[in-house]
Prior knowledge:
- Chain A: GO terms for molecular function: DNA replication origin binding.
- Chain A: Residues 60-217 form the Orc1-like AAA ATPase domain.
- Chain A: This is Origin of replication complex subunit 5-like.
- Chain A has 22 helices and 8 strands.
- By secondary structure, chain A is an alpha/beta fold.
- Chain A has 3 domains: 39-253, P-loop containing nucleotide triphosphate hydrolases (Rossmann fold), CATH 3.40.50; 258-372, no CATH class; 382-537, no CATH class.
- The radius of gyration of chain A is 33 Å and the shape is extended.
- By secondary structure, chain B is mainly alpha-helical.
- Chain B is 65% helix and 6% strand.
- In chain B, the strands form 3 sheets. In chain B, strands 2-3-4-1-5 form a 5-stranded parallel sheet, with helices on both faces. Chain B has a 3-stranded antiparallel sheet with strand order 8-10-9. Chain B has a two-stranded parallel ribbon with strand order 6-7.
- In chain B, strand 9 and strand 10 (730-733) form a beta hairpin.
- The longest helix of chain B is centred in the first third of the chain and has 47 residues, at 79-125.
- Classes of the chains: A alpha/beta, B mainly alpha.
- Chains A and B meet through helix 1, helix 5, strand 2, helix 6 and helix 11 of A and helix 4, helix 6, strand 1, helix 8 and helix 9 of B.
Amino acid sequence: MDKEEEAPQIPRRTRRSSTSSWASTSNDVSSVKVNSLEPQTINDLLVGGEPVSLDDLLSNFPGRNSQIREIVHLLGPLNTPMLPLFVYGGASTGKTSIILQLFRHLNRPLVYSSCRTCYNPRILFESILNQLHLHRRSAANGYSNAKRCERPSDFVNFLREALTNAINNLKEKSEKLMSSKTMRGGIGNMIYLVFDNFQLVREWDKSSTILPLLFNLYDMLKMPEVGLIFISNSSPDTFYSNMGYVEPIPVYFPDYVEADIRKILLRNQANPKLYSSFLDVSLRPFFRITRQINELSTAFKPLYEKYCEPLSDKSIVPNEDMKRRLFSHIMLHVSSSLNEIFKVSSLPLSKVESSKETTQKGTPRKLEHCEEVAKLDFHMSTSAKYLLISAFLASRNPATLDASLFDSKGGSDNRKRKRKPSEKVPEKKESLEEELLMKGPGSFPLERLLAIFQCIVSVADDPSDEEEQNGFGLGVEGACGDLMSDVLLQLSSLCNAKFIFKGRSCPIEGSTRYRSSISEDLALKVARSLKFPLSSYLYKRT
Amino acid sequence: MAPSSSPIVTDSLDPSTPTETLDNDLQPFFVLHKPSSRRKDRSSTGQGKQRKRNELSSPQNTKKQEGSVNEECDYHLFKPLQIEAFNSVWSRIESTIKDVLRDLNSSAFKDIQRWILECFNAARLHGEPNITEATRSFPILSNATPGQLSAALVITRNIEFVDDILTFEELGHFLKSHGCHVAKLSSVDFSMKNGIAGCLKALLREFPLGEIDSADISILASWYREQDNNNKPLVLIISDLERCCGSVLTEFVLMLSEWVVKLPVILIIGVATTVDALRNALPSCALQCLCSSKFMIGTPDERMDTIVEAVLVKHSTTFNIGHKVALFLRNYFINQDGTLTSFIRALKLACLLHFSMEPVSLIHGHMLAEDQKDWISALSPEILLKYMDEFPSYDRSQIASQAGKSIAQGLSDLITEKKLWSTAVLCLCEAGKYSKVRLLDLFCEVLNPDLYPHRDSVCHIRNEKDQGLSSTNGHSQQYSSVQTGGLIRQIVRKVRDLPTGALGQLIKRWEKLTADISEIHDKLKTFQSSVRCEDRRSPRKSSKDISKRYGSKASLDADNELTMLNLQAVAFIDCLVRNYMRPIECMPFHEISCFKNVEKLQVVLIGDPRRRIQADLLDSHKILRCSCCNKTGNALLPSRQDSSILYSLAQEHGDLINLHDWFQSFRTILHQTNKRKPKSKQSPQPKKRKDTAGSGDQNEASIQARFCRAVTEMQITGLLRMPSKRRPDFVQRVAFGL
């Protein structure tokens, strides 16, 4: 092992100094790594693995029977030309895996490229060419590509060249196979280009060149041995498609129905009976929220663990009584994690783990944790807090009310004053409030923010001084003046924390506008930590 | 601590270029010239911290210079010695801070590392793809559900990010030394402008891949699979989530999750505020790719307390700050920006100012060498004596001023007294942990010299009552009500009500703390032995907890005993406060190591440039001290600086200034000169008149030009806003009041 580790480092060092002479040094490298890195053959274009029968495939993908048969039909028997295929359907409906498994079953070469990994045209082109040239990037060749290709026109030329090569290669091979053995089918002469995540291409350079190019590839190449398969999230209608090329044949993958999801989730379970009783309880509510397999499976993983918690033996086959007990045990968790998954699916997991950690570390921690829930659990300087509150107010309250809210007497008086009109016309108020909710947080100029900030600080200053004196016994000298001094710095750090958004400058007034994006919950927490009467300053809620 | 703060200080330390720095750095604060690059920096709302540092650097220099100019003649001799002393002291403090912070984080780091190993092993359990599989373009087919990216959310719990740059750097080093491939990305790499390409490029740059012209994640996958690189986990640290561009991060996470089987990246994401930040930044499709766990690192409060403990309490002999300075720093930390970085910088400034202002401070550096006779001989004792005589504390303490010997005696006394003091404070702080008293607050209170005499007298009263040791609740209440020190009182109250188990722990910790200081340790010992006597008297000694549970009488007994023990502990605290907690400012010779000048520090830290500019514009004559303005005082003279005139005129307007009126009044003031000047100069009248008549138009033009330039200057300094399209003939005042 030592030798192996040492040897490759030497050529790398030399390569760095002599920039592109990797060809000369590759000799000694290949001597070391020959065992692991054989040169690629055309067989590397196959999906490989154990061959699967079509029946296995169909049983592996419940609810996808018709789609698989349709695609098989469209691909046709060995060595038949095909029209471009456009496979589409929602996220995690099995598009990519079905295509790949199908090719594993058919044992035909394919060139796969995901437009997510290949995030721009150049990388897409080079990745396709690398695969066709049977080129593997490694330390030995400095991770370089087989061909450097940036322009679409170059790509078409290179692609044609590479494809002819590869197809000739294939033909030779199949002839050899025919002569030597009559094995199962052989791999044929066709090469299939698969473009996954094709919907992302629309965003590259506004889809002006690449999209037509790829759709047009079939016409441009005029090679019957090349099959094109596009896999996309969105339907073909969303691609600009009246350009005069051959329209690809659409294959739609609909969302799974509940029974299919059930079958899929049950596929690899150690204890299917127990899991199915678990699914009886939890699948229905979750199914109403999401039908994506991966979301469901990530949500179910911790939940199933919870479900199994009362059981000592997880391989047990549950009877009715136990099911009932488990049901009452899990019901609470289901409803709570339903809420979680609706917002974020990653969070239940993290919460579970963090709570585990706290239990490991002992009870005092846990108690602390519970206490902290109500409090603000990160550090913010006092002036940043005031600034955040004023930003929240500025975003929430209409600017016209500022004068009445922040006059010399402070907020408490105005509240009474404000209530009277609100009682008079409650309907109007309601509609207004609805409108406010629909609009979301408003934007405000810097001056308004600073004005509110100053008002708040000066109002809150008098009582807070006393409190500070009581609480800490430390004289706070000139707290107000201190708070005011570098507000802009605080503002920028609030912007960095994404509590306040800085918009583009307003075209009419020419000044930058801000918008506060924090939830009322957070604002209340902050206000509580300052003992600031936030609710009396909020315009709303009669 | 912060990388850019160190050059600043070394700059100001350089004695060879005093005049240059003086000139350059005075500019932005007193005189308005053409907008220099620095001032432009300030008017644009750009990178906050950097800007702050820029501003900070200048007043510091000026202050330093001013200070040294005043005393230059006297202390010229000591300059290099002072610098040397400062360097040695500060390097000590700095290394202490670093060690302390590292220790503080180490447990969290270990947790993270353990978690990484778990993730890595779990990923390996699923089977490793070989290199051919891993370098192929299509995903690996397996029946298992697609894997999730393991992500650790490291919650730093401080909205300001500066402190955590260092934390994540150290985390990176730590993981690297524990056998991980570590790559660090920051928010700069996740910018909208460069998109996913920029962030991949930055990622690949972290690995030894050589020159790569198109960043592609498959390169990393093939690198990871060859040459046994896959023996180690691949860790990717994204240090500040909040600042990252959400869409780029989403793309990145999705791409990584596509490769997760071939390239098992483990993400470490620094979150400044709450977990919600991640929820807000990423859409659900990206969130579900993450299998996240939460890690907490110390809050800034905790870190602050450990720093205060290590630097200001434990090593109080090296350098210390007075009460007002401590209070100022505390308020600055809580109110202004709660970063350790700025606190440490402030401390450094205080240290620097101290060594530059206090001539005797240089003794200090030698005191550190613990060779107390050397320093006396190295300096002429007469000069030292002269300075020391000026110490108010020296007079107060009334040590016989015979020669160097008694001074040496005084100094060593100071050192021992400080050691006692710091142990006492630590003990108190240990007790304070039960009532959640922050060390920083306690420190401020303990330093307060005003409270000291009260405390003293209170303790005397207490002492008398202690004799009987029959203190009931009433006594204690009286005690607590008399005592003025809020926090100490709080602590005492808490200790009185502490349950036995906790009290035992506390006493054990006290023992550990006082182990080196025999004086206090003995006190503790006697207190403990008295407790033991009490214990022996009571029949059930070791089974207090059990006895508490059974029977009412037994529990009463236990309660009694409990209060006894508690009262003893209170008495011990009392003794600490009374005997050893004399505020540093009350010790003789404290001037040597204690920095008290809060005003200077305040000016240096809180520049408040805009107010300064306004003040200076309004009475520029006081700064310029030109002959003409001196006589007339506040009246507006044409010879005054243009922008100064304009700003004074602007005072008469509201928030909107009519440009025409403003210009007219400006012109009249300038014309006023043209009339007055010749008279005062008594030059031949006709000639002058001819001049004005001849160049009348030109004069008008030049006045307009001057007006425009002055207005622009004021705009640049942020005092007003240029006319908008809506009201083309009005400028708006932005800054009001001083």
